[in-house]
Specification:
This protein has about 475 residues and is of the alpha/beta class. The chain is built from twelve helices and 20 strands. The structure holds pyridoxal-5'-phosphate. Pyridoxal-5'-phosphate (PLP) binds next to helix 10.
């Protein structure tokens, strides 16, 4: 099998450390493999947020998600400040919390002035519990339940309406609730822009054949319908074209198309003042990945919206975006403990770790590629090519094919990089593995943000009917 690592590379894990540490503020986290605070400490071990990763594993167990607060805050600020720098109108960055939704992450994003994009009652409940203002929460979803819509209405968050069924359900709900909550509901409309981008089919959402959003051919009908609803206040339009995108052109095209929609909406008497261009900026998972920086991405969007509005003689809308992956992925690594290994002569060596597809389902779902280092051998030369296998009863439970590593032994701490997005949030209990703990690290301090699940947790929702005892 062909390695995706550059031929002949015998480097050590130190090659992945951020290079320009003295000017951290200029580093775009999505262009790095390791968190911005990562370094080799005096013992030669990987340190993140001032904490030795091997010590964190001793203290909090394995596997362990390790979230670097500085990297996450830096990404939040680069988005927020970028919009303030390049866009003269109002702007609001929303963290797409589907990437990793938990109290601490929502609280950190909220404390940096970001709002939160949620896609379920559970994510909404968490964001509210984290103290995020409902005025900055936006609820998405292509099949929101009546209960989720009622929770959103009662909490006062904005609902991003996805389809006709939802619009009719909303109208029906507001009529029923009208006596108790007479104010209008803030809605946005999600539209499918018909823009193709080069990313995995499952994470592409903006092409016409997508389960999300209204067909742009129905625009006139949708605008007309909404303009006639006394209880709906349509404040904006939304689109999201996909995830892990490296080109800037699709988002430029999107921004331009959305300004045309804005012009059309206002012809129907709707007072649409917000445009949400979604998320989708890619990150570096392997050396060859070359995404634009957060700053470059924000600049591209802001320029297009301004020039398109000028061409249409429209006032600048409030500009929203909702990045997930590029905000959080690089701020987290997952530490595992190496266990058994198996060498098949002439074929490959499998090195097994104590987690796998249950804590990181991306490789088996999207064939995603990751890099890893050995935390306790950061400076040792990469002399081996091995396949990192998870511990699940599934042959496809492979985290990394052809990983370049130093010689590994049981007890080594293997650290997979850039696991902050769509790892914990997609984690499962497959094979009844308890989900790992997560810690946030900053200035040499580590705090638990997710407790490790226990076997008791695993059977908490189980019911054993009397007759089966
Ligand atoms: N907004 C919506 C509607 C999404 O579906 C997604 C994820 O696919 C995002 C934002 C976040 O995308 P990303 O994590 O690529 O920034």
């Amino acid at each position: 099998m062909v390695s995706t690592h550059p031929a002949g590379v015998q480097d050590a894990g130190t090659q992945y450390l951020p290079q320009r540490r003295n000017t951290n503020t200029n580093i775009s986290p999505n262009q790095e493999l390791l968190p911005l605070t990562a370094k080799a400490n005096s013992q030669g071990n990987l340190e993140i947020g001032g904490c030795d990763v091997t010590t964190l594993v001793e203290q909090f167990g394995s596997p362990l998600y390790i979230l670097d607060e500085e990297t996450l805050r830096t990404a939040c600020r680069q988005y927020r400040d970028g919009f303030q720098k390049y866009y003269p109108g109002e702007s609001q960055v929303l963290y797409a919390s589907k990437a990793w939704n938990c109290l601490a992450v929502c609280a950190i994003a909220g404390s940096e002035g970001l709002g939160i994009d949620v896609v379920s009652g559970g994510e909404l409940y968490t964001a509210l519990a984290a103290g995020v203002s409902p005025a900055k929460i936006y609820l998405h979803g292509n099949n929101k339940s009546r209960e989720e819509l009622i929770l959103a209405i009662e909490s006062g968050v904005t609902i991003v309406a996805d389809n006709w069924y939802e619009l009719h359900t909303l109208v029906d709900i507001v009529e029923t609730l009208h006596a108790t909550s007479p104010s209008k509901i803030r809605v946005m409309l999600r539209l499918t822009p018909g823009i193709e981008c080069h990313t995995h089919e499952y994470i592409r959402t903006g092409h016409l054949d997508s389960k999300f959003g209204f067909d742009p051919n129905d625009l006139a009908e949708v605008f007309e319908f909404v303009s006639q609803q006394p209880n709906l206040n349509c404040v904006g339009l939304h689109a999201h074209i996909g995830s892990q995108i490296f080109e800037r052109q699709p988002h430029r095209d999107l921004a331009a198309v959305m300004v045309q929609w804005l012009r059309d909406a206002n012809k129907y008497g709707l007072n649409v003042t917000e445009l949400n261009v979604g998320g989708g900026l890619g990150i570096k998972y392997v050396e060859s990945d070359d995404p634009p920086s957060i700053d470059e991405w924000v600049k591209a969007i802001c320029e297009v919206v301004q020039s398109a509005c000028a061409a249409e003689n429209l006032p600048l809308p409030k500009l929203l975006s909702e990045p997930g992956r590029s905000l959080i992925a690089t701020s987290c690594v997952t530490a595992y403990t190496v266990g058994s290994s198996k060498t098949i002569p002439e074929i490959r060596t499998y090195v097994s770790i104590d987690g796998g597809m249950s804590d990181n389902p991306r490789p088996i779902t999207y064939q995603s590629v990751y890099r890893a280092v050995i935390a306790n051998k950061l400076s040792a030369s990469h002399t081996e090519t091995v396949t990192i296998a998870g511990k699940h009863c599934e042959s496809g439970d492979i985290l990394i094919k052809n990983a370049q590593l130093p010689k590994t032994e049981p007890g080594d701490i293997l650290v997979v990089m850039a696991t902050g997005a769509y790892n914990y949030s997609m984690a499962s209990n497959y094979n009844r593995l308890p989900r790992p703990a997560a810690v946030v690290v900053a200035n040499g301090e580590a705090n638990l943000i997710l407790q490790r699940e226990t076997y008791q947790d695993l059977i908490r929702q189980d019911c054993l009917p009397e007759r089966l005892k």
